[in-house]
Specification:
Mean pLDDT: 94
Bound molecules: nicotinamide-adenine-dinucleotide
CATH superfamily of one domain: Isopropylmalate Dehydrogenase
Number of strands: 20
Radius of gyration: 26 Å
CATH topology of one domain: Isopropylmalate Dehydrogenase
Strand order of the largest sheet: 2-1-3-12-11-4-5-10-8-9
Low-confidence stretches: none
Helix content: 25-40%
CATH architecture of one domain: 3-Layer(aba) Sandwich
Length: 481
């Protein structure tokens, strides 16, 4: 029998308790061996005044067991409540979101009979840092943060996942033709780390055409690794075109703790009726069993699940007249899987897990800091008194003291010098000051410049210092520059 593992379980809201009960029943009958610590999360906790939907004692359980099987929860409407999922992912550093998207043709309707794609999504960074500001009457911003450690961890995880699961190709999606620094870093790290995996085919697609290709011919892909936002969107697309978002499970992997769940929500309208499909959570639990090394139980559950689908025993959400044989409820679907434990599918491909797939982790390599040199500053202004040339004239009254105004952009487009009248301008301006080539600036010069900008009656919103790193510019040019 497998070594006993402690896990933390949350039964969640809406259909959560029903699908969790069915899931636990199936995996226990399959021989999974664990002690359960139950925690309460979600609606009732929010209503007791915990704005993140989880109490302090629950964190202790998660830190102790390091394995979390979580049913969906209901996030109350209205301000003041924080997303529990985002809180758990970020607090515990769950950097990798892994979603296998598999079609079950001809038993579950899909336009893509041959589809077996695993989306590996970066889970903590990108536009999800949640750093947003309103800066002027007309403009708001959201900061997109991409880090080298974050890229290294997710990309290495994707390659390790591929190697240990006998997958042959890893594809990377980014938009680095536009976001040359942020998405460019993700792509560069993909190329660097890919070099350590000569046995695996590698390719990169710009996300727009990559997404179109994924939706059209998913059979061309195997493992796809992506930054957070693209991964969030495309993992739902991939799950849905495979058959249904209701069938997919996901793993959220961290260096210390990992969380397993269905990808759907708490479906409150279906709650308490014994109709919900437990497959998503069950497949999340299978990923958990693989992660903790209970390979045999994982395989028994997964194959019995495939056999049940093949036998036409379906819940209402995937039931199709003429294909399905029996419409069943949550409990009965679980019971049908238990009755098939030990059987393997006849038409669908049986799964075979190996010990090597357990506990995949990833790391990153600290490197010595680069030689960082301040060479200029972008000063952002809230201004609506005229044309770009008039703003340039006003700024030229302000002595630069070693820093020279080199460019003004509006929404990133160069409007001075040599702007064109057709460019639409808002009240949000970026004014770039640079030192002479080869020279360096200091923070004192920047602070003094800002003081003079303020004295001239100009309203600055923020600055971004411009650095070179080992001589390479750490900033992008203006469009049209
Ligand atoms: P949902 O996924 O709960 O439901 C979308 C649709 O799919 C509904 O028609 C629902 O009936 C159906 N559905 C979903 N899961 C099903 C299942 N297992 N079996 C059968 N039918 C199923 O999404 P929603 O309606 O947008 O959100 C409902 C609540 O869930 C919200 O409070 C939302 O915040 C929360 N939510 C939680 C999570 C999570 O905890 N991981 C994820 C998404 C949404």
């Amino acid at each position: 029998m497998a070594k006993k593992t402690s896990i933390t379980v949350a039964h969640g809201d809406g259909i959560g308790p029903e699908i969790m009960k069915a899931t636990l029943h199936v995996i226990e009958e399959a021989g999974a061996n664990f002690d359960i610590e139950t925690i309460e999360i979600g609606e009732s906790v929010y209503k007791r005044g915990f704005t993140s939907g989880i109490e302090a004692a629950s964190w202790d359980s998660l830190r102790r067991t390091k394995v979390f099987l979580k049913a969906p929860i209901t996030t109350p409407q209205g301000g003041g409540f924080k997303s529990l999922n985002v809180t758990v992912r970020k607090t515990l550093g769950l950097y990798a979101n892994v979603r296998p998207c598999v079609s079950y043709h001809p038993f579950i309707a899909t336009k893509h009979p041959i589809m077996d794609v695993v989306i590996v999504r970066e889970n903590e960074e990108d536009l999800y840092a949640g750093i947003e500001h309103r800066q002027t009457d007309q403009v708001v911003q959201c900061l997109k943060l991409i880090t080298r450690p974050g890229c290294e961890k997710i990309v290495r995880y994707a390659f390790e996942y591929a190697r240990r699961n006998n997958r042959t190709k890893v594809t990377c999606f980014t938009k680095d033709n536009i976001m040359k620094l942020t998405d460019g870093l993700f792509h560069r790290v993909f190329d660097e780390i890919g070099g350590d995996y000569p046995d695996i085919e590698k390719e990169h697609w710009i996300v727009d055409i990559g997404a179109a290709k994924l939706a059209d011919t998913p059979e061309a892909f195997d493992v796809i690794v992506m930054p957070n936002l693209y991964g969030d969107i495309l993992s739902d697309v991939a799950a849905q075109i495979a058959g249904s978002v209701g069938l997919a499970g996901s793993a959220n992997i961290g260096e210390h703790v990992s969380m397993f769940e269905a990808i759907h929500g708490s479906a409150p309208r279906r709650a308490g009726q014994n109709v919900a499909n437990p497959s998503g959570l069950l497949l999340g639990a299978v990923m958990m069993l693989v992660h903790i090394g209970q390979i045999e139980a994982a395989e028994r559950v997964h194959n019995a699940f495939l056999r049940t689908l093949e036998d036409g025993i379906h819940t209402y959400d995937v039931y199709t007249e003429g294909v399905s044989k029996q419409k069943v409820g949550t409990r009965e679907f679980g019971g049908a899987i238990i009755a098939r434990l030990g059987q393997i599918p006849q038409q669908l491909k049986p799964v075979h897990y190996r010990a090597a797939e357990a506990g995949i982790g990833a790391g990153w390599t600290p490197r010595p800091p680069a030689d960082k040199k301040l060479v200029g500053v972008d000063v952002f202004l809230d201004w609506r008194k005229g044309t770009p040339d008039q703003l340039a004239a006003a700024l030229r009254q302000v002595p630069g003291d070693g820093l020279t105004l080199s460019m003004i952009t509006n929404r990133g487009v160069k409007v001075w010098p040599d702007g064109v009248p057709e460019t639409f301008c808002t009240d949000h301006w970026r004014c770039r000051y640079m030192v002479k080539d080869g020279e360096g600036a200091n923070h004192g010069q920047v602070v003094a410049l800002l003081a003079r900008v303020e004295e001239a009656g100009l309203d600055f919103i923020k600055i971004e210092n411009l650095f070179t790193f080992d001589g390479e510019p750490g900033f992008s040019l203006g469009q049209g520059q």
